[in-house]
């Protein structure tokens, strides 16, 4: 090797040593921040991770813990000690090292609890996230569903094993998975790590508890929050109150009524539920929200790059949802294929309307068709499969304009005083009281 070669090798060695030294410093500081925390919660599972992260953080805040939470769902957010939210700016694709950055930036010496949603899908990355980044005392596996099979395994048992890589050593695992064979699978994996399994029971949650949510919520999610409260000694009333105050995730189903050509329509944007179990369960829960006797219209919003999903819903309508849906409207692509498959499996062809790319309708045509499918004065409209097609965007822009909403309104909602934890509300009132007394003393405020 010549002198230039030795010089290049020397530079590489120096760079390698510098990078290794830097990462040792970063990880040492990171572990120091983790050790200062009283509670570390890692939220994993197939469905509901972002929602449960928010609910659990609400329980901890209302229970008196200074809490930082981080979601990785439809819109990544950091949720501060008072419930206030901040978006996470990203350059390029997100990586699990983002978790280290969030902890460095937001976990100061005053923070007592951290709730963080698992970012990883690959089991190796999930394990790395748990064992080296989060090191949780409590891990939550919301449920086991069929999704990400190409990385997590084809069977539910294999998916349960993949999720189990985030089980803490010697800690607690909470799950709302209710199928006995999958519970037993999780229990076996927990025992292997010296971990206690707690099964959250939806039976703990009353209908009165559910009335406090202003969006579609599920009892298993709430039961997870109650299980955490019981483990940490937080009173049930405080736990429920904290969950009510939690701002819903961007992708959560919010329910609003709109007037469409004289018809009162309940709009249910169910685009985020893309597996059979979640959709069927959601339809069962939604029944209590439907006005009696209202016509129910489902929109199958199909994208050309989501062919497998289009086929899934084309089968679900006749096999699982026909008793719920009075009519079906198709948006986007695959209209002929989807219509043919629904009809072949028994869904009446005369109850299907094509308003997607084979028609390219105007907004007025879409609204007129919806109104004509509602025989009375009240109906229900449910959007499914995907979010983005031209027809769906026309409809959602119409609803957004009708409601007067705007992008980012959930961030404003998170800062509303009524959403603050009890302790923060008391401090806010005390600060206002002190300010008024000071102003009175200085003669700036009179009793007049």
Account of the 3D structure:
With 448 residues, the chain is of the alpha/beta class. The chain has two domains: 28-249, UDP-N-acetylmuramoyl-L-alanine:D-glutamate ligase (3-Layer(aba) Sandwich), CATH 3.40.1190.10; 256-403, Protein-Tyrosine Phosphatase, Chain A (Alpha-Beta Complex), CATH 3.90.190. Helices cover 46% and strands 16% of the residues. The protein has 17 helices and 14 strands. The strands form two sheets. It has an eight-stranded mixed sheet, with helices on both faces. β7 (172-175), α7 and β8 form a beta-alpha-beta unit. α9 packs across α10. The longest helix is centred in the N-terminal third of the chain and has 34 residues, at 3-36. The radius of gyration is 25 Å and the shape is globular. The termini are far apart. The mean pLDDT is 87.
Mean pLDDT: 87
How many structural units, i.e. domains? 2
State the major sheet.
8 strands, mixed
Instruction: Please identify the structural class as seen in this structure.
Output: alpha/beta
């Amino acid at each position: 090797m010549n002198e230039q070669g030795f010089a290049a090798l020397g530079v590489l060695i120096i760079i390698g040593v510098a990078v290794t030294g830097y990462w040792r410093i970063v990880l040492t500081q990171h572990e120091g921040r983790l050790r200062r925390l009283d509670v570390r919660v890692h939220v994993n599972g197939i469905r509901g991770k972002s929602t449960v992260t928010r609910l659990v953080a609400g329980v901890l805040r209302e229970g008196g813990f200074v809490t930082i939470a981080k979601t990785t769902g439809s819109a990544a957010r950091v949720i501060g000690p008072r419930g206030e939210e901040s978006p996470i700016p990203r350059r390029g694709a997100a990586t699990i090292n983002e978790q280290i950055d969030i902890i460095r930036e937001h976990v100061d010496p005053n923070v007592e609890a951290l709730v963080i949603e698992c970012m990883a899908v690959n089991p190796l990355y999930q394990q790395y996230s748990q064992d080296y980044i989060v090191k949780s005392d409590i891990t939550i596996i919301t449920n086991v569903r069929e999704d990400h099979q190409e990385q997590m395994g084809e069977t539910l048992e294999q998916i349960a094993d993949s999720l189990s890589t985030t089980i803490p050593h010697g800690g607690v695992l909470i799950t709302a998975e209710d199928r006995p064979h999958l519970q037993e699978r999780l229990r076996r994996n927990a025992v292997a790590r010296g971990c206690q399994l707690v099964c959250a029971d939806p039976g703990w949650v009353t209908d009165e508890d559910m009335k406090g949510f202003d969006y579609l919520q599920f009892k298993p999610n709430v039961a997870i929050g109650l299980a955490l409260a019981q483990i940490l000694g937080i009173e049930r009333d405080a736990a429920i109150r904290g969950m009510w105050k939690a701002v819903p995730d961007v992708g959560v189903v919010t329910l609003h009524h709109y007037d469409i050509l004289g018809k009162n329509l309940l709009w249910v944007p169910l685009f985020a539920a893309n597996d059979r179990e979640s959709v069927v369960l959601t339809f069962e829960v939604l029944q209590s929200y439907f006005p009696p006797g209202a016509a129910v219209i489902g929109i199958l919003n199909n994208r050309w790059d989501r062919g497998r999903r289009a086929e899934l819903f084309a089968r679900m309508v006749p096999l699982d949802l026909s008793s719920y849906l009075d009519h079906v409207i198709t948006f986007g692509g695959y209209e002929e294929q989807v219509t043919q498959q629904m009809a072949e499996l028994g869904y009446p062809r005369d109850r299907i309307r094509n308003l997607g790319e084979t028609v390219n309708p105007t907004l007025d045509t879409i609204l007129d068709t919806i109104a004509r499918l509602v025989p009375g004065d009240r109906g229900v409209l449910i959007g499914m499969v995907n979010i983005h097609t031209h027809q769906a965007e026309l409809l959602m822009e119409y609803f957004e304009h009708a409601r007067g909403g705007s992008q980012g309104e959930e961030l404003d909602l998170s800062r509303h005083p009524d959403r603050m934890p009890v302790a923060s509300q008391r401090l806010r009132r005390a600060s206002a009281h002190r300010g008024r007394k000071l102003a009175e003393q200085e003669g700036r405020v009179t009793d007049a």
